[in-house]
Amino acid sequence: MAITLVKHNLKYAEAIHALSSMPQVRDALGLPIGKVEDTINFIKRECVDEEAGKTVPRVVLNEEGQVIGVTSLMFIDHQTKSCHIGSWLGYEFWGKGYNMEAKISILKIAFFELGLERVFAGAREVNIRSKKAQEKLPFIRLYVERDYPQVHKWLEVKEKQPCVLNVFEREDFIRSHTILEEITSEREYYLPYLLLADEDEEIVRNYMNDGELYAIHCGEDLVGVALLIEQSEATIELKNMAVVSEFQGKGIGKIVLQIIYDKYRAKGYTQIIVGTANSSIENIAFYQKAGFRMDKIKKDFFSNYSEPIYENGIRAIDMIVFSKNL
Questions:
Q1: Quick one: pLDDT band at residue 226, thresholds 50, 70, 90?
Q2: Rounded to an integer, what distance in angstroms lies between the CA atom of residue 38 and that of residue 26?
Q3: I need a surface site. Which of 141, 146, 260, 279 has the fewest CB within 10 A?
Q4: Given CA atoms 279, 281, 285, 290 in this order, what sign does their dihedral have?
């Protein structure tokens, strides 16, 4: 099963109108009986709102390119890094797994493209099917009315009736979609990813075939790599970890570290170490936030690199080694 999200276009008007006119859909959405001209006006409004940055509306197509529904990120607030989600599928496509796929695709836009941290999903109390459909999603927090009372109140005022409030949190979504795949084949393909964290190709080639290499996947996307090398029976070193730029700053690194802790604790290791350059201000902060403590400094470690490395206007000369008990 594969769905595609596309921008609204007037060519989809008749298909959307036909699907939304089915009694099961119309009643669930509380829509009046309308004409195709109403759908055309709806599409035009959606396009205008997207241009204004208020919404990200998308038409859902199935694997055959057939229109099966719509989904949208609405009321986007970049200050609170949040928005609301709305979606529906044509009656004939209910119960076939399309809801899950459509949610994943639109949430990727919210979390990875827009940089939002949470997406609220409301449902009217009387809309039993919508509530049950949301309850099936493994990466949703249900019934958060007490956590977000103002949002809940706003929703009920907007809908003019009692509602439930659920939320998709970015960290929960990423955790549910992030896996480490151990690479047992040729590693050359992953060299460009390793070079994101260590720029000297000659040095990277000297260690890239040591230890255990993992591909970091977030859903279907290959987003980075992690290389771990044993230093002793008790200590494992995180030799290299990199996440591609478009997925940085989204919390993936934090979740990957937790997976690594669990994996290597189960293997009997009691300590993990990692080294980073004195110039890598972001990495120094990242590892300390993750519970690592400064262990030692390897002076002049980066002096052997073929080309000098500068970050934040600072030359990389020494390596700061961090450690954490598992």
A1: very high
A2: 14
A3: 146
A4: negative
Of 276, 182, 269, 191, the residue nearest 232 (C-alpha): 269
Q: Which two tokens stand for residue 151?
A: 């949002």
Amino acid (one-letter) located at 174:
I
d(CA 93, CA 86): 17
- For the segment 175-187, the average pLDDT, to the nearest whole number, is 95
E-only strand ranges, 183-234: 212-218, 221-230
| Strand segments (E) across 16-92 | 56-61, 67-77, 82-89
Could you tell me the pTM of the whole model?
0.85
> Computed over its alpha carbons, how large is the radius of gyration of the chain?
24
Please identify which residue in the block is written with the tokens 């403590």.
293
SS3 137: coil
- Quick one: average pLDDT of 69-85? 96
User: Where are any strands of DSSP class E within 244-325?
Assistant: 271-277, 293-298, 310-311, 314-315, 319-325
User: What 3-state DSSP class applies to 72?
Assistant: strand
pLDDT, tens digit, for every residue of 96-129?
999 999 999 999 999 999 999 999 999 989 888 8
What are the φ/ψ torsions at residue 238 (nearest 5 degrees)? -85, 95
Distance CA 255, CA 203 (A): 27
**Residues 172, 176, 181, 187: is their CA dihedral positive or negative?**
negative
Place of tokens 């009321």: 75
Contacts of 47 (CB under 8 A, 6+ apart): 7, 8, 57
**For the chain, what percentages of helix, strand and coil (3-state, to nearest 5) are there?**
40, 30, 30
